[in-house]
Specification:
CATH superfamily of the largest domain in chain A: Type I PLP-dependent aspartate aminotransferase-like (Major domain)
Distance between the termini of chain A: 78 Å
Family (chains A, B): In the C-terminal section; belongs to the class-I pyridoxal-phosphate-dependent aminotransferase family.
Keywords (chains A, B): Aminotransferase, DNA-binding, Pyridoxal phosphate, Transcription, Transcription regulation, Transferase
InterPro entries (chains A, B): Aminotransferase_I/II_large, HTH_trans_reg/aminotransferase, PyrdxlP-dep_Trfase, PyrdxlP-dep_Trfase_major, Tscrpt_reg_HTH_GntR, WH-like_DNA-bd_sf, WH_DNA-bd_sf
Strand content of chain A: 5-15%
Oligomer: homodimer
Strand order of the largest sheet of chain A: 4-11-10-9-8-5-6-7
Number of strands of chain A: 15
Organism (chains A, B): Fodinibius roseus
Protein name (chains A, B): GntR family transcriptional regulator / MocR family aminotransferase
Largest interface: A-B, 139 and 139 residues
CATH architecture of the largest domain in chain A: 3-Layer(aba) Sandwich
Helix content of chain A: 25-40%
CATH class of the largest domain in chain A: Alpha Beta
Number of helices of chain A: 15
Chain lengths: ~500, ~500
Amino acid sequence: MLPLDKLITIDKSSNTAVYLQISNTMIHQIRSGRLRKGTKLPGSRKLAESLQVHRNTLLAAYDELQAQGWIETEPRKGTFVVQDLPDIQPQGIVQTTPKATYPRETAFTVDESRIVQFPSGQPSHEFELTIDDGFPDIREAPIEAYTRELRSLSRRSVFNKYYRYGSPEGVNYLRETLSSFLNDSRGLPISPGNIMITNGAQMGIYLTARLLIRPGDHVIVGDPCFWGATRTLQQTGAEINRVPVDGSGMDIDAVERLCKKKEIKLLYIITHHQHPTTVTLSPKRRIRLLELAAEYDFAIIEDDYDYNFHYASSPILPMASLDQHGNVIYIGTLSKTLVPSIRMGFVVAPENFITAVSHQRRAVDWQGDSLKEVAIARLYENGTMDRHIKKMIRLYRERRDRFCGLLQQKIGDRVSFDKPDGGMSAWATFLDNDLNTVEEKSRERGLRIPNSRVYNKGSVYNTIRLGFASLNFKEQERAVEILSKSLS
Amino acid sequence: MLPLDKLITIDKSSNTAVYLQISNTMIHQIRSGRLRKGTKLPGSRKLAESLQVHRNTLLAAYDELQAQGWIETEPRKGTFVVQDLPDIQPQGIVQTTPKATYPRETAFTVDESRIVQFPSGQPSHEFELTIDDGFPDIREAPIEAYTRELRSLSRRSVFNKYYRYGSPEGVNYLRETLSSFLNDSRGLPISPGNIMITNGAQMGIYLTARLLIRPGDHVIVGDPCFWGATRTLQQTGAEINRVPVDGSGMDIDAVERLCKKKEIKLLYIITHHQHPTTVTLSPKRRIRLLELAAEYDFAIIEDDYDYNFHYASSPILPMASLDQHGNVIYIGTLSKTLVPSIRMGFVVAPENFITAVSHQRRAVDWQGDSLKEVAIARLYENGTMDRHIKKMIRLYRERRDRFCGLLQQKIGDRVSFDKPDGGMSAWATFLDNDLNTVEEKSRERGLRIPNSRVYNKGSVYNTIRLGFASLNFKEQERAVEILSKSLS
């Protein structure tokens, strides 16, 4: 009778339940051959004593082993390791410490070369103060109205059907609400069949690229371009071609020159308050671009994540509203209107595209959260969204004016920027201070500013977006104060 | 002065605002050359009259055109089409009807061959009664407790930080809660760094396959296998190899034979209550499979979507709890514990894999819904999840026994099935009735049964899963009654 209690070590500080530590250890002993098949096990009372655990704990371990088919109990004879286990050569199994451990690394190699790295920063809430990349003020968002809708939906059994599996395009209720919202506000003569609900604009970009791009296909983006989109396109194997962005948006002549040289499959563009430069594509260039797309037969992703927040006269309609051929995939999001973590956006496209992309979406995550989608639809219907947008336009316009004024007044000699027509940030070039140093110095003073290195893949910029929308006047003053102290 | 009013047709029934119909039409006229640059436009009052719209509507249209840069107003002279538009040859533009339309089809071709089709059925709530594929009873789910948590979170500003952008792995609060839950209940000695939160198990399968599979790589699945997983693997370009599934689960000898012939990259398996067959992989085979994975260096996706619902003695621990090498990617979901549309699941793996897969997740949809994740974490912490699981195990066990009894009694001579040890459905083979016919006849009587054709890609089965968990006793009786009437 082997000293089983010597083979079993228990770590009471471990997260793993003691009975599982015991049963796991014994499994390892059996597999390693130290506990031979047919071995009679000591009685539970006896072993419990020597292990100094409660007898029920040991019984639970024995139950576990029995349920797993490692041991069997014969009436009036006792408990034994079962006979019919496969004969395992000990060297066939790694020797493990009795205490259960979890592998540090995968046995198979994960091919790093296939992974496009996304930068991961320290979460902003760990800073005293943050100038973000151009995010909404979450303190103003109608989150309570949203959770109120969720709560009231969950109280009415008529909405139970939304707990079942649904369609990958999203619930029709929201698709209908959004299509008339987009008809009225953005001149998109679409029907619900032209809309798929996504987890934010990001999923729309990903699914579209995944559907249209084969490794090696050429795509066009702006220089600079929203770094998340560039990386996503690269993740799908696209060859990135960058064309300059000036005060009127992407240089369409440069696009045409590229089209003559290479077969372009897809062009990614933000037409309103481009990320990062905040410029808007001029009407002339929109028409030229649509013509080029028709002539050279490429798809356009019009990412319009920021449409709602335009502070000049009425905003220019999306390029998609002029698209007669069906070249434009129009993508929007609620991340800027509500809060980033709400993860809801939409893709607008001709029906054949929506159908195709919905199959892709099945593969990715099956469908969206139907209950959330219905709650959002109700926020549109009861006017909450519209009121909130109007309110935020006023607030953010004030904050833009105040913030740009502060920048001019305090550090106008050391940064250059244009006051944006819309959006939530200014694209500011730092003239004689290296941004990495500025970032460090600000950090020491408790201020976080955006990471400028994310653009360096395109070309090197000493420029970052300074988000003004999420900061009230007091915060703006403190932020700019620290910023100016961090400049030489 | 051309008769502009003749060129503008207004459809008051259209979803598009009238002023946008007018401005869009005029844009088309300008682009088509019918409205030449420099043309003087009629006064708003005059044109409003002839179009029979309110003058403000027309002014809004003119504002829109001006904002978009199509027209300009010269003081005391009037309003003109601007001079500096690009000279567009009319044939360069498709002739469009004045009324704004949206393209029926994309201009570019969407390559059907690259899209793996997922079957799309009629939503179950359109039927009087449904025998589903094995889904939980949504009427029993603690959705109200969940929305209560959401509501109370949204009322406390301390949780505001969860509205900001966060990490692709999910909020640490839930990762910590889940890792100790999985430690205690499933013998997984993991830490939060081994967990990524996903949108359901589906996203875990997709991201893992996307990360590990290159087109043409060989993967192994069971025959039969969960049809959603097979299609997802195909979507990533995998070569599917099917090995038989018998009463003890996947035939591991067949797996070994395949490993000797081909380089296997990945094996997908459901170890508990396999979908569709409901069988559980025996302990012997688990050990053999782990050894093969170590020997032939392939990854295993252990999809454990159903672990909580085992009705025999205590369930066998997941294979991942025995994994010493780091071959197993362990995937779980809350779809069966809460409701399918909640879209929350998790991937458990060594940290290097979690890091790699989190970059993939950034590309796909950036991150999950942080507020939801915190609410779910609280449901674990305050015991709601645990109570619900225990309650459902009792309820579903009763329903299984009752349902299998009914099947045996009413149509036992025309179907063959084994009473499952766990899960939410029985895998029933119809002996002398073609399932397509049965499906049709049941439908005529208001009963929906699962689609059997989804398995035919593997081999032809006249077998479907008959879900018992979502039907109370009355519903079970009516369902089986209709089913028996639909059999010859």
